[in-house]
Amino acid sequence: MAACAPTARYARRMVKSAVPVVSATKGATRLDILVGDITTLEVDAIVNAANRTLLGGGGVDGAIHRAAGPELKRECASLGGCETGSAKITKGYRLKAKHVIHAVGPVWSGGNKRENELLRSCYATALDLAAKHLLHTIAFPAISTGVYSFPADRAARIAVGAVTEEIEKAPRGLKQVIFCCFSPESAEHHKAAFAELGLS
Questions:
Q1: Domain membership flag for residue 8
Q2: What is the percent of the chain where pLDDT is above 90?
Q3: Domain range for residue 108?
Q4: N or C: which end of the chain has fewer CB within 10 A?
């Protein structure tokens, strides 16, 4: 793994409002674990742990819709929903983030309904959308670990593994990827995933 500091051109675009719990590099991309409120991050895109309607819900989904304002729901209503494992992009409206990437994670059903594959696909699809829209900084919540009951430790390994594999395969111009955790416990699962992958 080659470590590389971000170029001065993009360094000013990185999140400075929260101190990372852990930071690492993968190629030219910095990976950070934060504990905080994803709706407050000033990045090119935050990822929403959305449901298939894209019209808002509880947890992170509801918080993002409330912070973005009603314009977000109106744009989401025009998108025709989204399949599990996929993602769609909108503007950020009243958020500090320029865009919201709505990723629909799987509901945990014991692990025999392609849950791992579908969760990994959320991360890969979100990164592809970021590249298509020339975005350089992106923040992910712990997708599917709330009311969808995906085991948090397993989800963290899939999240970190998917992001690092995708960056290694195709960096996509990403300068910073943030794993924005809602609790210290969630951050610990992501830290463990970093350690397993030799990132820390």
A1: no
A2: 89
A3: 23-196
A4: N
Task: Name which of 13, 59, 10, 12 is nearest 38 in CA terms.
Answer: 59
CATH number of the domain residue 53 falls in = 3.40.220.10
Amino acid at 187: A
* DSSP secondary structure letter of residue 106: P
Q: What angle do CA 177, 179, 184 make, to 5 degrees?
A: 155
Q: Is pLDDT above 50 for 134?
A: yes
Q: What pLDDT, on the 0 to 100 scale, is given for residue 2? A: 31
pLDDT score, position 19: 81
Angle in degrees, CA 33, 39, 42, rounded to 5: 75
* Residues composing the chain: 200
Residues that are catalytic: 61
Q: Is residue 92 part of a domain?
A: yes
Q: At residue 20, does pLDDT exceed 60? A: yes
In the predicted model, what is the mean pLDDT of residues 99-112?
98
Three-class secondary structure of residue 197 per DSSP: coil
For residue 6, tell me if it sits in a domain.
no
Burial class, 151, CB count within 10 angstroms (exposed 0-12 / middle 13-18 / buried 19+)? middle
Q: How many helical (H) and strand (E) elements, i.e. helices and strands, does the chain have?
A: 6, 7
Count of structural domains within the chain: 1
What pTM, to 2 d.p., does this model score?
0.90
> Does residue 124 lie in a domain region?
yes
Give all strands (DSSP E) within the chain, no chain letters.
Answer: 22-26, 29-35, 45-50, 87-91, 99-104, 137-140, 176-181
